[in-house]
Design a protein that fits this description.
Low-confidence stretches: 1-19
Largest sheet: none
Mean pLDDT: 75
Number of strands: 0
Helix content: 55-70%
Distance between the termini: 49 Å
Structural class: mainly alpha
Strand content: under 5%
Number of helices: 3
């Protein structure tokens, strides 16, 4: 299951529609071909799962940082334009 993305504004900032990351059940085993998986020994399988888990959590962390940065910036930008609009037309 992939993360749900909403519409984007003209400045390409995402509009959040869902807080579900969508990565809850994603595993390395599901991404690799079965014949490749079967050829690996147990130690290599576990190693690949750990590497994939690290990659997945880092990817989610970066996504969360984007949200933390983009959402407040979007509202600051919106209210700045709103203040300018009020100033010019009142």
């Amino acid at each position: 299951m992939k993360p749900t993305k909403g519409a984007t504004s003209s400045s390409s900032l995402p509009i959040i529609t869902s807080f579900n990351s969508g990565y809850d059940h994603e595993r390395w085993k599901d991404k690799v071909k079965p014949e490749v998986y079967e050829k690996m020994n147990e130690h290599e399988r576990q190693r690949q799962e750990v590497i994939f888990e690290l990659y997945r959590t880092e990817k989610e962390y970066l996504r969360d940082l984007d949200v933390i940065i983009d959402v407040p910036f979007f509202f600051l930008l919106f209210f700045s334009f709103f203040k300018i609009f009020i100033y010019l037309f009142t």
